[in-house]
Amino acid sequence: MFAILAYTVLAIILGVVITSYINIFYGFKRRVIQPIKNKKSTQTSELVYQKFKQAPGPRPWPIIGNLHLLDRYRDTPFAGFTELAKQYGDIYSLTFGHTRCLVVNNLELIREVLNENGKVMSGRPDFIRYHKLFGGERSNSLALCDWSQLQQKRRNLARRHCSPRESSSFYMKMSQIGCEEMEFWNRELKNQLIPGEPIQIKPLILKACGNMFSQYMCSQRFDYDDLEFQLIVQYFDEIFWEINQGHPMDFLPWLYPFYQRHVNKIINWSSTIRKFIMERIICHRELNIDLDEPDRDFTDALLRSLIEDKEVSRNTIIFMLEDFIGGHSAVGNLVMLVLAYIAKHQEIGERIQEEIDAITSEENRQVNLLDMNTMPYTMATIFEVLRYSSSPIVPHVATEDTVISGYGVTMGTIVFINNYVLNTSEKNWINPKEFNPLRFLEKSIDQSPKSTDGSDSGIESDKVKLQLRKNIPHFLPFSIGKRTCIGQNLVRGFGFLVLVNILQRYNVSSNDLSTIKISPESLALPANCFPLVLTPRNSI
Ligand code: HEM
Prior knowledge:
single chain; 4-stranded mixed sheet; CATH 1.10.630.10; alpha+beta; 47% helix
């Protein structure tokens, strides 16, 4: 009896392994057939079909494919991809579980994928976690859905409000909201701060960012001691961390039952957030919308589109608000990282404070968004954090068979865009391992003598005025192409305001630098991260 059972189990395991291998091997070997112009033919329209091999790569194993190759790089998969590129070249294929993957490791290839082939490379992976985070359906999410007409519509709807142009009325609104919120923030901090003692500052920064986003998009702010608000800010932060982590379940979905508790936690975070958005924001706004008046904010624009456009559903707008309000976690985590690097390199904080003081000392005022262009070192520090943390670009998926750099890419292939290699390569940066904001600065074109009215706040180094380097082709923190980040102006604007308003009033340091643990390849910090010491500046 026992022997029969053992043989049956063995036969099942063998059957699973063989089926898995056949499946993986088929994906590994499959060629892509694409039409090309017939060079011999005199008729320009005549097409012939050519078979394209997939990019080279290691032979996959049954069940796991090539996942074992990244075992050493669990926390730094893109460093692993960079290592593998030394063996297989700048473009290579892998198999994770049963899924074919392509990794591209230089700027030309990245452009070929995201710009030239954007139309067929704009899907997203079908991970279970992505569905669970968005009410069971990842197409509800702007960042995790496949490309579609609805997505185009959602992006257009969001663009005006969520990508405010410099000196537009939306930009000025952002500035005002950010500055006012930092006044609330400062009062709250004073209540909590014990001089010289470290403070867990992350929740407070996230609440400030959360309020900036909800005021900007929904004209609504919440008290810092509002328990529901505190909870959703915390849950958004948990989700930001979660989304930035890889998970074995993504490529081995049969592990799902073993991670049921984790998945339930994710479902609870996102459903609590949605309930909050529904009850505390949308419900009473729906009653008050006046279609004859211009839109006050993003929520008005969404509610208007709900009434005017049959394709837009209530779900669409709830999830869009969730996506965009949730952007505050990215900004909060980014600011925390900047503060961490300032705690590690005190001279960086001092140089930012020099820029702040040059602007504010005469007029004794808050820094606002109009000051951003005269604070190049501050912006360079934010960019250096973006470079140094090298936040990964969300993976893309080929929605049709296509060809990249002469290699066939089969439909469903997940494409990893290795921007880590761009950010860390000695070909692109001098001494890339060094944290140095100056790399984002260059001599100012305007070398006019420094004005004497105190308004010139440009950092001077050996009497040379510096300005921010713009359009560095290999620096792509927000990606390029069809699915580029919609929130980048909000990141720059609100991130800048939070940072300068903190440094205007406080010196930032740490009593124990060893507590500052920063994971490479990620902007996300754990919800419970390091404390910092905020010391009021003498001049304030
Ligand atoms: C430091 C902060 C941020 C960084 C580094 C960042 C970076 C990125 C990157 C790399 C992508 C993927 C682009 C691609 O797949 O090619 C992306 C997508 C996206 N981001 Fe951001 N982002 C940040 C903050 C924000 C904020 C604050 C918002 C909204 C308020 C936002 C909204 C979005 C959306 C909606 C997408 C999806 C666009 C699409 O797939 O069509 N992001 N972001």
